[in-house]
Design a protein that fits this description.
cytoplasm; seven-stranded mixed beta sheet; Glutaredoxin; 5 helices; redox-active center; alpha+beta; two-stranded antiparallel sheet
Length: 187
């Protein structure tokens, strides 16, 4: 079943952020754009490259009013230890959400039950708490923060302009399409 346009299910979790542990719930998401960025585990190989890429682009996401939550099934204590011991992870300024109960990973449909780990899942959530973008990669394929940034801009554009759609490879400032009977068969 697709999660597109469904509301984020209730959850309560602890995150590590800037030297503190904070509580996060589905209510924390309301009124802003959010990204849930699931990854298999702390202290691994592909994961720090992805989280570091997000950190390098975090200011661009913040300019768009987007909060990022990286999520793994590790504890918030493990997130702190990784943050304190890795130069790459040490630059993260967004919350590292802990999911040791596996509830959040199950809610988003990315839990690998037999391993107790999350797939590489990316979910963009709108200010109403509804999922607008879903992307799931195999464990050995890393994601690209710049492509995610492009997708967020497209999601924000179509939310603000509900009578338009963004074609393939659309970038901010480029032409969009206005679906109509006149357009059918002309592209």
């Amino acid at each position: 079943m697709s999660l597109i346009n469904t509301e984020v299910k209730p959850f309560k979790a602890t995150a590590y952020l800037n030297g503190e542990f904070i509580d996060v719930t589905e209510e924390s998401l309301k009124g802003q754009w959010n990204i849930f960025f699931f990854y298999p585990a702390d202290f691994t190989f592909v994961c720090p490259t992805e989280l570091g890429d997000l950190a390098d682009n975090y200011e661009e996401f913040k300019k768009l009013g987007v909060e990022i939550y990286s999520v793994s099934t590790d504890t918030h204590f493990t997130h702190k230890a990784w943050h304190d011991s890795s130069e790459t992870i040490g630059k993260l300024q967004y919350p590292m959400l802990a999911d040791p109960t596996l509830q959040i990973s199950r809610n988003f449909g990315v839990l690998i039950e037999e391993a107790g780990l999350a797939e590489r899942g990316t979910f963009v959530v709108d200010p109403d708490g509804k999922i607008q973008i879903v992307e799931i990669n195999a464990g050995n394929i890393g994601r690209n923060a710049e492509e995610l940034l492009r997708k967020v801009k497209a999601a924000q554009y179509v939310r603000a302009n509900p009578n338009e759609v963004c074609p393939a490879k659309w970038k901010e400032g480029e032409e969009t399409l206005a679906p109509s009977l006149d357009l059918v068969g002309k592209i």
